[in-house]
Amino acid sequence: MQKLRPSVKRVAMIILMESDLEQAMQFYQKLGFKLLFHLKNRWAEFILDTVQIGLCPTVEQPVDRCTGIVLEVDDVKQFYELYKDDITFVGQPTAAIHGVMTGIKDPGGNIIDIYQPTPDRVKEVVGKVATVGKSGCCKEKSNENKVAQFEKSDCVC
């Protein structure tokens, strides 16, 4: 019998290094994160939906750290207008095919993306690709995750 390999179950926690733990705590509370607990000058832990965020103090002064963390909001432009005087943004809201995005910097220099999905725009683009597929150029590939994927046939799309 083949032995099963252990696998990753979920993202349990994301830890961010912070040079000023108290200031970082205020920052994340302002964004709506719920504080789970705080050990003065040692650790703070928040939760947003099912993801825990740990804040760990550090004496190192970071140079802009891109975290890869993306927070979803209903309206990026409204979020920008609401917080532009209180939060450091790394750019203006920008529209892309998949959504509207901007970035913010937390007090420790961690860069976090703020994202507003635009599913109607994605459907439109996928629809155009699917239309091309009907002409025999690209065909939709079925998959169990119901994510739109396409594969090329012999012609060039």
How many E-type strands? 11
Number of H/I helices? 3
CATH fold annotation of the largest domain: 2,3-Dihydroxybiphenyl 1,2-Dioxygenase, domain 1
Q: How would you spell out the order of helices and strands?
A: EHEEEEHEEEEHEE
> For the report, how would you describe the main beta sheet?
5 strands, mixed
Q: What is the CATH architecture descriptor of the largest domain?
A: Roll
Strand content bin: 35-45%
Judging from the principal axes of the Cα atoms, what is the shape? globular
| Mean pLDDT over the residues | 80
Explain this structure:
This protein has 157 residues and is of the alpha+beta class. Helices cover 22% and strands 38% of the residues. The chain has 2 domains: 13-117, 2,3-Dihydroxybiphenyl 1,2-Dioxygenase, domain 1, CATH 3.10.180; 119-152, no CATH class. It contains 3 helices and 11 strands; from the N terminus they run βαββββαββββαββ. The strands form 3 sheets. Strands 5, 6, 7, 8 and 9 form a 5-stranded mixed beta sheet that branches. The protein starts with 12 loop residues before the first strand and ends in a 5-residue tail after the last strand.
